[in-house]
Amino acid sequence: MKVGVIGGGQLGRMLALAGTPLGMQFTFLDPAADACAAALGEHLHADYSSPEHLQQLAQSVDLVTFEFESVPAETVAYLEQFVPVYPSAQALRIARDRWFEKSMFKDLGIPTTEFADVLSQADLDAAVAQIGLPAVLKTRTLGYDGKGQKVLREPADVVDAFAYLGNVPCILEGFVAFSGEVSLVAVRGRDGEVCCYPLVHNVHHEGILHLSLASDQHPLQALAQDYAQRVLNELEYVGVLAFEFFEVDGGLKANEIAPRVHNSGHWTIEGAQCSQFENHLRAVAGLPLGSVEKVGHSGMLNFIGSIPATADVLAVADCHLHDYSKAFKPGRKVGHVTVRSESEAQLKQQIAALEALLSS
To answer: Collapsing DSSP states into helix, strand and coil, what is residue 127?
Structure first.
């Protein structure tokens, strides 16, 4: 089977690593000359909206998926005329726009913070008067890893905040006093079957995911799965979807969804029976889904900007290094490690040893 992937970053790279043993071949459409997934397949070096290259992609593969939500929904809709594409353009259109996304949560009865659409500074002033401070102003699309947002703590922060984010459509969200951040990675097959991995505890540094720890019988697992299933069914979704939540007063408030394989699910490569990457490919190809059961205790640590010496990383017991072959750059995800253990205590020791490498 030939699979087209819109985007050629590390997520596309890991999709190809998971799909190659299944006999799949990959073509990546990406405008970056140094797309790190290119080593795992053919690279169509072109803009996402190039009709010529979209036609070339559609004619050379059996199906198409995408690795991140910055892909224009119009690109997916165009391809759907010629080749199966999963997830759908409609699912992408909603998931990539925070206003559509939050509105869907509200319609489905999924708790979220108070929010308001902001199309001008006047809209922002009115929204702040309604929601209050502190609050977070975010661009409706294209924001990730802490980009495209501004925290508003006092009235002075509100002045010219709309211009600060580029005078583009935004959403204002009430500040959430949460006790923890968790995410659920779920997968839905073409036949509607849904499987969910264990909830993951996440720790962020400067808006970028730093550490993910897979939970063991989390008390909110069933609730998270219920919310995720509502979204998956509403969107008639096919593939992996990640759902990020805030833990608030013993329950969950929805933060956002990502219509793709997700950073907080990287632990599944070594820490689950079937990884999120293989399960995404199984889903979009119409194959039976794999087991989402954990293998021992697992965690994932991101490498941001640079990677410690390989020998030092691999000296940590049961540590699995994933180097994305990307140029080192401050604030850039360039690799990660999965650590696995037979006990939570040992896992904490392994994580501590890796974090010591980052601070040395």
So the answer is: helix
